[in-house]
Amino acid sequence: METNGALVILCRYASASVLKWIRVNQDSLAGVVLFLDDNIPAVVAGEDATLSYRIFLYYRALYPLRRLNTVLDAVWVSTRALGDTMRHLAPVVVPPAPPSRLWQVNKPRGDKRDVCIAYHATGVHYSEHLFLHPIIESILIQRPQTRFEVFAGKHAAKIWKDMEGVTVRPPVSWSEYLEESSKRLIDIMLVPLTPSLVNDCRAPTKRIDVARFGAAGIFSISKAYGGSENTSEILLPYQASVWTETILNLIDDTDLRAKVAAATRAKVAAMRSAVSEREIIKLLKIEAQRW
Prior knowledge:
Elements: E1 7-11, H1 16-25, E2 31-36, H2 40-45, H3 51-62, H4 65-69, E3 74-77, H5 80-84, E4 92-93, E5 115-120, H6 126-142, E6 146-151, H7 154-157, E7 166-169, H8 174-181, E8 188-191, H9 197-200, H10 206-212, E9 216-220, E10 234-236, H11 240-252, H12 254-273, H13 277-284
Parallel strand pairs: 1-2, 2-3, 3-4, 5-6, 5-8, 6-7, 8-9, 9-10
Helix pairs in contact: 6-11, 10-12
Protein name: Glycosyltransferase
Organism: Agrobacterium rubi TR3 = NBRC 13261
């Protein structure tokens, strides 16, 4: 790899070998940037993620910080709320700006009677699985033509064990997920967020997945997705009865699903257009400053 004038962007954390490589090539690099999209200390201190993952995050993301800080030129964060947790580093907010190929829908939606509802989560959303379980249990009884698909690690998968009409899938790599979601459609996607320090710092990136699947999304009212005012999207308080009623309405109303899906696509399109050339130039002006 040519190091002369290279800008190194570290996503979340760096291994010992990467840190060693940076130190060896430091004088020839244009700069070193750390990009963060999660409140990692809150994840480590919380209880939603598995113990093994929290230990991994500590040793990979937190323990090396003292060494990493000596070579950093800038810190980028995905949201202003996340930046507020580390103001002493003067982080630059880099909001999601997905290219159209990552979210535009080019798949025909055929006529079918069954309705697919999905919850695609990572391993740090155990509380959301607990929240959705009784909701989905009720939905499947009231609307037997519905099926539910959920991504869940071993810990969360136990919540959905032996439920008729539920397909539990293990997490897959990002490249696998992108390829699959580019080829199929989902009718309704659920994006609940339990109120927490971790979720307060999240970016609205799940909107991109919802748009790519051509789905009608239901989102939690939150710092990530905003409130329910002045929007055609569906944003709900974290109340099971409200989510149940709304999901039933979407199952029964094809036109409403199409309207809600279009609203999310419009939101995702706006993410891209909101990033100006001036902001991009600002990101690339790395000052030779060490923390």
